[in-house]
Amino acid sequence: MNSETERKGKIITMLFTAYGQAGEAERMAMYVKKLKDIPADILDKACDKAVMESRYLPSIAELIQSAQSIAEQISGTGSPSWEEAWKQIEKEMRNTFVYGKPQFTHKEIADAVNAFGWEELCSVLTKDLPIVRAQLRDMYKSICERKKTQRMNSYILGEAVLIESENKVRLMLNERRKQD
Q1: Is the pLDDT score of 26 beyond 90?
Q2: Second label for 165, Cα 20 to 30 Å away, from 40, 73, 113, 150?
Q3: Same-domain pairing of 127 and 175
Q4: At 116, is the pLDDT very low, low, confident or very high (cuts 50, 70, 90)?
Q5: C-alpha–C-alpha distance, residues 155 and 17, integer Å
Q6: What is the CA radius of gyration of the chain?
Q7: Rounded to the nearest 10 degrees, what angle do helices 166-179 and 40-53 cross at?
Q8: Does residue 109 lie in a domain region?
Q9: What is the pLDDT of residue 166?
Q10: Residue-wise burial string across 47-65, b where 16 or more C-beta atoms lie within 10 A, e elsewhere
Q11: Taking the model in full, what pTM does it have?
C-alpha cells in the first residue's frame, strides 16, 4: 500500500470513529476503495465537513459530492449560483442587447440562454420578465445537474477524473498550508 492510500485509510478510520463505527473494517475498506481517486487532502476536508454538518455517517456518494464541491470552490471551476448567473444575463441584456453576442463566464449560462433564445430573451416585455426568469432558472439548473451527471458517468466509464482540476486543487491546498 502506498502512503496516499494509507493516509486515506487513516482518514476513513477517523471518520468512522467519529460516528462510533470504528469496528466496521469491511465497510471502511469499501469506503477507501470507492474514494480512491479523491486526493487525500480533499478527502480529509470532506470528512471534516461531514463530521461538522451531519449527525450520521455520510454515504460514499455524500463524501464524493462534498469533495467535488470543496475542490470546485478551491479551484474556482464550479458553476455559479443561479443568482450569479442571472446577474450576468441581466448585464449582457443591458450592455449587448439583441444586436450583439453575449459573453458569459461559464458554459452553463450560455447554454441556458441559447436554449431559451437570446433574441427572445432580449425581447421579453417587462411584465413577463418574472415568468421568463423562472423558466430560464429551471433551464440553468437542469443544465448544471446534467453536467454533474455527465461528469460522474464519464468517471464511472473511465473517461474522466473524479475531481476536475485536481492538480490545481493540490497546488492551491499546498499554498494555503504554507501560509498557515
Answers
A1: yes
A2: 113
A3: no
A4: very high
A5: 29
A6: 21
A7: 70
A8: yes
A9: 62
A10: bbbbeeeeeebbeeebbbe
A11: 0.79
